[in-house]
Each structure stands twice: as structure tokens, then as C-alpha cells.
Amino acid sequence: xxxxxxxxxxxxxxxxxxxxxxxxxxxxxxxxxxxxxxxxxxxxxxxxxxxxxxxxxxxxxxxxxxxxxxxxxxxxxxxxxxxxxxxxxxxxxxxxxxxxxxxxxxxxxxxxxxxxxxxxxxxxxxxxxxxxxxxxxxxxxxxxxxxxxxxxxxxxxxxxxxxxxxxxxxxxxxxxxxxxxxxxxxxxxxxxxxxxxxxxxxxxxxxxxxxxxxxxxxxxxx
Length: 222
Ligand SMILES: *Cc1c(COP(=O)(O)O)cnc(C)c1O
Hints:
By secondary structure, the protein is of the alpha/beta class. It is about 40% helix and about 20% strand.
């Protein structure tokens, strides 16, 4: 049961950790069930699915895009998205800035870091992020706000490895905070942890977990 799973999860996670319910592939009815149990933040990884669900569901839901985003699709989510998790290039940030401006908004974004051993996962290195943040182009952006970092650990049973990867993200956050964002109270989010590893993530300093299957059940991909 979705409501029960949510309640259990909420009881388990400490204050100061935000729960994003990852509803990708799940029907609107499932999201409504979570909504009725009090959940207001939902995450999707595909732009089209996000837009369709946004249109059909209550307007006080905060929608997060958690998956990889292509520049040419930013325009579809710019009017309403509340947080974009997986930003990993200056080009993408430029497009988000442009579309945010068109919508008279400031859009919050997380920088995604490559912390896993798998090479299939997107994300920046610390050096790349520093270069990005120091660029003139980045400094000219008025309609984006970098509110923290996001990362995905390797899909493995080795919890020590997972912890090490989350620790890496924690250090990246601390370094960026100290060097570039010390006066920005908004720069506060460490988005790490999914169904399989949110406990480790929280212990390693996560402030926001993205949990799907533990709430909604396993996903059936066609
Ligand atoms: C699907 C997904 C999740 C949630 O995964 P679960 O294992 O179902 O909790 C979290 N983050 C991202 C980026 C995802 O794509």
C-alpha cells in the first residue's frame, strides 16, 4: 500500500531530510494516493511524462525533474518545474536560464556529479564544476539558482563502496560551498539516496532522498 509505505518512510527519515517520491512509470492514480497521504513533492525522469502528469494533477504539487535533461526540452518544463536535479553542462544551464527568463522565473538547479564507478552515469567532476562556476557565462545567468548537488552511487551490494561515493559527494558539496556559495543560504541540498541506499545516504549527509520503488512498488518497464 502506497500510503502505508509512505508513512513508514516518513517515520524513518530524520528531520531535515526531504523526501521526493519518484513516480516515473506509475499512473496518476498512484500519485493521487500518495498525494492524499500528504506527499507533495514528486520526481519524474522524463520530460513528456512529467508534463502530462503535471497537467492532470493538483497544482500544489512540486515537480522535480530527476533524470537527464536535453536542452531542446527545457522549454516544456520551464513554466512549472520546481527543481532540476541533473544539470551537468554550461550549455544546459544557459538554456534553462533562457527559458526561465521567458517565463519570468528563477529556476532552482542541482549540479550532478559523477560519483559512481559505472561510466553510464552522467555528471561533472569537481574540476569541471569549478570551471563552470568560474566562467563569465555562468556569472551572467540571472534566472537560475544553484541550490546544491546531486549524485547516484554505483548499483552494488557493497555498502562500503556506496558510502564512499556518497562521502565524495558530501566533500564536493563542502568544497563548493566554501569556495563559491558561502553567502548563499540557498545552496543547501545534497540529493543522494534511492530505495536501495537511502539509509546509507542519510548517514553520509543526504538532505534529499529520491525514493520510487519502496513507495510505489517495483516498476514494470514495457
Ligand atoms: C528512478 C530513480 C530514482 C528512484 O529509484 P528507486 O530505486 O525506485 O527508489 C531515484 N533517482 C533517479 C535519478 C532515478 O532515475
